[in-house]
Write a structure and sequence with these properties.
With 289 residues, this protein is mainly beta. It contains three helices and 17 strands. It is 13% helix and 38% strand. The N and C termini lie far apart (76 Å).
């Protein structure tokens, strides 16, 4: 009987070796060694005047979205997830048929992307988890002519396919930001240096968070007024942030802020009256020390 058991064990061991299954790694004491964490894939999107250079297809899961603004204008990445069965061609057709006052189709859902850094090579990043499906990458920022860049053809398709291989994990945030109608709650206060902000939208409407470093002596109200007309030198410079995110959305925003005065702004049109959310009081000035 013992001989049979030993023979059976030998066959099982041989089969395991032939199957290619490596034995679990252990340290010098024989304890299991934890697998190294999987790094977040970095998806780079280059914005130009007025187009995107970005992958056509990426894998689902936790990713870093990196926006490089190679244009002369302000540009962001607004992700729009299309409901099952809808294609990018369906989105383009619906967009071209829309009037400026029309609401988007109910099968288009706001997913946050990195908001605008400074033009001419500025970089902004966010980290989030993307589900499989068809997406559109769009820039809704208007130029000095008040025409949104999407109307000039600044949009691109993106397909997110089911992931293969080990999954990456999002890092841990140290500052929580909650978006509501029409404010941000930041806990604890943002201090100078590097942080990871966890931004969650609990409001009924989509909201964005534009972060801008204000010029000395300037206010967030002056920056908001400048954005309306874009005349003369801007009273601040964009530092990224997140584009529009629907209720329930959560993203991580890494920041590295020097001391100074900063503005937080949301320019998304209100669902009720079409006015930008800054007109409803969704702008704030914070001191970073």
């Amino acid at each position: 009987m013992r001989t049979r058991l030993l023979a059976f064990a030998s066959v099982c061991a041989l089969a395991a070796c032939r199957s290619g299954d490596a034995p679990p790694k252990t340290d010098s004491t024989g304890a299991p060694v934890a697998a190294a964490p999987v790094a977040l894939p970095v998806i780079t999107i280059s914005a130009k005047d007025f187009s995107y250079d970005a992958p056509d297809t990426i894998q689902a899961g936790a990713v870093t979205l990196k926006l490089v603004n190679d244009g002369a204008d302000l540009h962001h990445v607004q992700l729009l997830k299309l409901s099952d069965g809808k294609t990018y061609a369906d989105f383009v057709a619906a967009f071209q048929a829309m009037k400026p006052t029309d609401a988007p189709p109910p099968w288009v859902h706001d997913i946050a992307g990195p908001n605008t850094p400074v033009p001419g090579g500025g970089i902004s990043e966010i980290m989030e988890t993307l589900e499989p499906g068809n997406y559109a990458i769009v820039c809704f920022i208007p130029g000095a002519d008040h025409v949104p860049h999407a109307m000039k053809g600044m949009m691109k398709s993106l397909t997110v396919v089911p992931a293969t291989g080990p999954a990456a994990m999002l890092p841990t945030a140290d500052i929580a930001v909650t978006m509501s109608d029409y404010a941000w709650t930041v806990t604890p206060e943002i201090t100078a240096g590097k942080h990871i902000l966890k931004i969650e939208n609990i409001a009924e409407q989509s909201h964005e968070m534009v972060i801008a470093q204000l010029a000395p002596g300037k206010t967030v109200a002056e920056l908001a007024a400048w954005v309306e007309n874009q005349n003369g030198p801007p009273p601040g410079k964009p530092m990224g942030g997140i584009s529009g995110m629907a209720k329930g959305g959560v993203v991580l925003l890494p920041v590295d802020l020097p001391p100074g005065e900063y503005g937080l702004l949301c320019f998304i049109p209100d669902a009720k009256d079409g006015k930008p959310h800054i007109a409803h009081g969704m702008l704030a000035q914070i001191s970073v020390k």
